[in-house]
Amino acid sequence: MILKQLSHREQQIVNSLIHHTTNAAIAADLEISVNTVKTHLKNIFKKIGVHSKAELIIKLNQAKPNTQFSPNAHSHKK
Fold it and tell me: What are the Cα distances from residue 68, in Å, to 18, 30, 58, 76?
């Protein structure tokens, strides 16, 4: 699985990305600085072989076809 190649903190960043679209929101969620989020994302992108959050989400969806990863997936409009 893709996430196994990431550190624990990088996995937390990815999990937060699923619920938050901005670096600021991810930083607030994990109680770290925006610059730290940017650094982790850069490292994640390099390890996974993508260049953006959108590409990362696509790659995660391809790796786990039964689970749809998308920012704000937990909020449903009615």
Answer: 10, 22, 9, 14
